[in-house]
Design brief:
about 140 residues, alpha+beta, five-stranded antiparallel beta sheet, 5 helices, about 25% strand
């Protein structure tokens, strides 16, 4: 019997801005829409141009970061689903380091809280829950 792989897409809110995200149950990872994160961090009207310029800059510097970013179908503001660049939490944290922004640190903390919620609520992470409980007692 095949196990059904459940994928969940949800909107997350960071400082009043929507961030599209996608939970891959098989990999047990959240993926975030790169364009949404860039929009929040840079507050630019042209996040796609900013992302294209940043990808070019990273490639010239020899970074392989953009190669670790995939595409997922996510719902756009028009209600339709389109492929959009998406990154898991680890890659997103590395990407954020490349974007000069006063919002970078609060966004990193927000991502950490999102990850902590997933671990603490998941039946798949019993060891993670124990570690978090132990960590919380020491902080």
């Amino acid at each position: 019997m095949k196990k059904e792989i459940k994928k969940v897409s949800k909107l997350a809110i960071f400082e009043g801005k929507q961030i599209r995200r996608h939970w891959d149950e098989r990999k047990e990872l959240w993926y975030f829409a790169v364009m949404d994160v860039i929009q929040v961090l840079t507050q630019t009207d042209r996040p796609r141009k900013y992302w294209n310029d940043l990808k070019s800059k990273l490639k010239k510097e020899g970074s392989e970061l953009s190669e670790k970013i995939g595409q997922l179908k996510m719902q756009a503001s028009d209600g339709k689903y389109y492929f959009t660049d998406a990154a898991d939490t680890e890659v997103m944290l590395r990407l954020i380091q490349s974007i000069p922004s006063p919002n970078a640190e609060p966004f990193k903390l927000w991502l950490a809280r999102v990850g902590k919620k997933v671990i603490s609520r998941s039946k798949y992470f019993p060891q993670g829950r124990k570690r978090l409980n132990k960590y919380d007692k020491h902080t």
